Amino acid sequence: MTDAGPAAVAGRGGAPFLRGRGTAYGARKDANWPFVATLLALLLVASGALGPLLRGTSWWWVMSAVAIIVLLLGALLPTLRVARPVLPLWLLGGLLLTLTLFFGAGTALLWIVPTPATARVFSGLVASGVDSIWQQSVPAQVTDGILFLLAAGAGLIAVLMHTLAVTLRTPALAGVPVLVPLLVPGAIVAGPPNVMALVVTSAVYLVLLRVDVRHRRAADANHAVGGGPVARVFVSSSRRRVVPVWGTLSAGAVALVAALVLGLVVPSVTGNDPRSGSNALLFGSGVSPMINLGQDLRRPKAGPVLHYTSTAERQSYFTLLTLDSLVGQTWTARIDGVRIDNSVENIDRPPGVSEEVETTLAETSVVIDGVNTRWLPVPARTVKVTGLTGVWYWDTRTRAVASADASTIGQTYIAEALELRPTAEQMRQAGSEYSSVLARNLDVPSGMPTIIEDRAREVTAGTTSSYDAAVALQGYLNGSAFTYDTESPVEEGYDGGGLDVVGVFLEKKRGYCVHFASAMASMARSLGIPSRISLGYLPGVKSQDLEQGRGRYDVDSHDLHSWPELYFSGVGWVPFEPTPGRGTVPDYEQAATTDTTTGATNETAPSAAAREPVDPGAVDLQASGATSSPTRQAGTVLGQLASLALGLLLLLLVPAGVRAVQHRARHRRIRSGTLTRQQAVLAAWGELCDTVLDYGITVRVTETPRMLRDRLCAVIGEESAAAVVLARLCEAVERARYDRGSDEDGTVDEAVVLSRELGEMARRIHVSVGRGARWRAVLLPRSLILVLWLLLNGRSPRNA
């Protein structure tokens, strides 16, 4: 054996640990590529976990392209002798150029050099992407804004992974950034984690650690340390086959179980946010706003939302969000009219309103009491909003008012809105010619349930105008055949506002505002009438208090509501109220409505049925089915607590399981008879050292086997049988280390005896230490912790 010099310190099994700075990671041109390729594979596999949230697969290819460019740059730069500390800056610069090439929209110099115009484009894409995420339901249509956020996110994760693995030389931590795409789906859509994605990602993570260990082993053995030459370290062929996989397996297993536990116990953002009071579920989760609204309506106790005064003759509904597009079977918001320069102090006049329609301007002063959302509650047809803090803008198509950097909490503002007073005759005279933009509000998917169109044509038979057909639809849904019910859709599995749900609702005839609004909008489209759905609040209840000489109205979370809006040429978008017992039927409908609308009320506030307390058991629901009784709710909570306890128990037992498997594998290898005597002795000594470490007894790399034997004898007793066995093993280890030339093949009988004696020593140590040390040896084996610590600090454990 060649002397490795002072840089080498003997490890537990005879193979040295190398001390000193080591070589710069990636100094060898051929060594860095496999590692960077594994980083890339880890990121791409983890990114696939976002699949359930997004439509199509093109977004994944864009993320992959950006990640490939960034990590390819990270692999090339070390070969150009770029200093490791500045690598992250180079990678960030490369990411910026890449995003400019992909998303700069012609604003860059030479296609890749960003300009101030590029910054404005990026700002708009960020606002648009955030806006789209908040508006759309799952799976979301990937807009340009969302695609930009995904690409930028993939690039930043790639930079962070490369920085941790290469610049800071802590490759085990490179798996932390990829937890973001893994855990995001569980934080948005409640349900079990994507086990397959977690398993595959964990497997690639193990490969990453293995590639890192092999790279460091080669660098330690064959490269200079501290500026001087070091002889090639002797590692026997058998030792080279004994790879340090146990620490790697421990890290991977802990990461996998931790991710599974987090996926199970981390609440989705559809749950209550303590900062948001009673209104935490409000349209911000990325899940279906229809389901979200239903959850809010089922709260057992209403929370304050806002109060206001108004000069309007008839109090208006407050609009938060408008769903104007059918993607598949799901109503969602179409995001193509977002412009951050759309100042809320100058909102365009509502489209399609002719001069013949009587309008008046009403002023509404609003104070937000409890709702916390990015969407601003404003009266329909608002043309100006003043007094807001933060940057707010309005959507060109839906006129929804939103902010990218502020929320409604604590806001006080004044909204000026147009009151429309169209007559029934004006609406009957509306034509059926629509612009290409409005034509999109006629789209229906090919898979729409046939009952929707069949029932619509049955109800509107004999009508002579689109308006009369709309009133007939409203009268049918608002009539006595249908019942307002927030519980039945959940219990019978047809909650939500998708077209498939509407088909079931028309059969069951029980539901709440989401079902009525979606049904009328869908039926109207089947008849060729442009329609959309608005989500927001009813006008609330008039208070006895006065503010500024005006009557005050209070709105709470039970005033959450959805209603359809239909478009008539010359009049514009007109609201209807098909939900029985909720809201107000406008005058133009009342004039033409028959006694089928007896469920409606002429009061501006909702009926008592609208404010009736509901069962607390339905607060936490999913469209696939839910609980509605307190007993079932308690069962759900207990089930969640049991899942949490089981997950934590599994996480706690991971180190014990890995150590047990390692222990059995070593004994099996020793007993196999395939090792030489020296190899078997060194393997047994390594297992003994790990056992000693597990029981809290220090193993110093600077001491000889005899020194460790003397300290162990003080624990197990010098006169014990185990002490005799220990002395015999110690002598064998010394011969194996210093007399390698006499190595011979061992017999199976000798191997079995060695394994049995090793077990006897372990049992003697077990009974010689305290109870606390025994538990720690099982649940928190220090030998595995040592391996993890070495990996995190860029050291290569030789004899795991």
UniProtKB/TrEMBL annotation:
Q: Ranges for the Transglutaminase-like domain?
A: 505-580
Q: What is this protein called?
A: Transglutaminase-like domain-containing protein
Q: Pfam families in the record, alphabetically? A: TgpA_N (PF11992), Transglut_core (PF01841)
Its ancestry begins with: Bacteria, Bacillati, Actinomycetota, Actinomycetes, Micrococcales
Q: TM spans, by residue?
A: 31-53, 59-77, 89-113, 146-165, 195-213, 242-266, 637-661
The answer to whether UniProt assigns keyword Transmembrane to this entry is yes
Compositional bias (Low complexity) spans? Answer: 591-605
The cross-references to PANTHER family, in alphabetical order and at most eight, read:
PROTEIN-GLUTAMINE GAMMA-GLUTAMYLTRANSFERASE
Instruction: List the residue ranges of the region (Disordered).
Output: 582-632
- This protein's UniProt keywords: Membrane, Transmembrane, Transmembrane helix
Organism for this UniProt entry = Cryobacterium psychrophilum
